[in-house]
Amino acid sequence: MIHKDIMCNRCEMEEIAGNRYKCLLCDRYNMCQRCYSKEDHPHQECFLRLAYPLPQEEIQHLVETVQSVPSNKPSSSNPSQATSNPNNVRQQKTGIVDEHT
């Protein structure tokens, strides 16, 4: 399958043949199968694989849908603040620290 008018940003292939990989975080960043397989993009885990060409409107809808899915990661980078601990939940909701636990 040929993705007409879509260039690989890495090797600059004019029209991507085969799978097209679109970065969900970078604006207008696409890679061909060969370049994607080299795994050297900072957002490697955030690509949409397109096996066949789609209208831009459908691609944009897919990107927006994926970006709207909440992350499973804790909101804080500090593991001690993770909400899985009931005491941490209490502290986050009330500001009260229970020093006896």
From TrEMBL:
One annotated GO molecular function: zinc ion binding
Limits of the ZZ-type domain: 3-55
Region (Disordered): 67-101
Keywords for this protein: Metal-binding, Zinc, Zinc-finger
Pfam families the record matches: ZZ (PF00569)
Transmembrane annotation, as ranges: none
Polar residues bias spans: 82-94
Low complexity bias: start-end ranges: 67-81
Superkingdom of the source species: Eukaryota
InterPro entries, per the entry: Autophagy_Rcpt_SigReg (IPR052260), Znf_ZZ (IPR000433), Znf_ZZ_sf (IPR043145)
Record's protein name: ZZ-type domain-containing protein
Organism taxonomic ancestry: Eukaryota, Metazoa, Ecdysozoa, Nematoda, Chromadorea
